[in-house]
Amino acid sequence: MKKILLLIFAIIIIAAGGAYYYVFIYSKNHHRDVQSEVAIIVTRAELLAKDANNVVAANGKFYNKAVELSAPIMEMEKNPHDSTMTLTIGNGDAFDTNIDVYLKSKDGIKNKIGDNITIKGLCTGMAPNTNVKISEAIIK
Amino acid sequence: MKTMFKILASVIFIGFATQINAQKVFSTKSGQLLFNASGGIETIAAVNNQVDSKLASATGQFVIAALVKGFKFENQLMEDHFNENYMESTKFPSSDFKGYITNIKDIDFSKDGTYTANFDGNLTIHGVVQKVTTKGQIKVKQGKPTISGEFSIKLKDYGISGSYIGDKIAGVVTIRVNCTYQN
Fold first, then answer.
1. Domains of chain B: total
2. Confidence label for A30 from pLDDT (cuts 50, 70 and 90)
3. Which candidate from B47, B69, B182 shows the least CB-CB separation from A125?
4. N or C: which end of chain A has fewer CB within 10 A?
């Protein structure tokens, strides 16, 4: 009987320890690495060829997935909060829906406006009247 | 006659240029939103550095929009629960605050300084729209304004529920805004 109680106690301790490790240690040190995931290769047209009036439906196909696409740089902006670069890539029409790319690295980039680039990152979706956003991106 | 025409053209041009200046719309794609919902021992806080914002200097009209998926937590599990169980980001992918700075006339965008701004607008979170009135600051430096402010919301007002709210997660959440406009 004593052995059984000890065994149950040991199982509880191990389970609690495992849960603590997973919740408070593993989850803090292991974040999703989009760059290790296989990306869906899309064109700008495919990424934007959705009903912009229905954001939920529009977000459905590529939302929360790794995507890779090529397009020319239209705008560049340095993020004052984390020193990363934000690039807007698209068809050159600032009034059209384009793609905002938030680079992962804090290192500067050599590319300039007009350069055609290929990026890979996480599609975080779109909001009404805003561009599609791709975060944690790298230039390939 | 030619001189008269030139003067007239100059007057029209100056008037047009002044009008353009008066209607300046500042924008950024790199605004920041921070929220803190720490209720117990564990810190529950996240930051989003991918916030869209526009501010019209003449009318005071503003919009601050963020994708829920853009909030980053120190703890990945917390981030997953935030998106899936609380904010339901697949169903409600974005949040925004739209409205007017009601005392925009007190703010001189051509002069460096720190000004108090009264924000009055509609805050949409989790698909629920609520009216929010709060004070903030606009700091103008070299022609570029930065808006900052902090306000609190009750999660239940936005239909956000979950078993940990009120225990591990605070029922009242503090939101901090910080947007430096690029142009």
1. 1
2. confident
3. B69
4. N
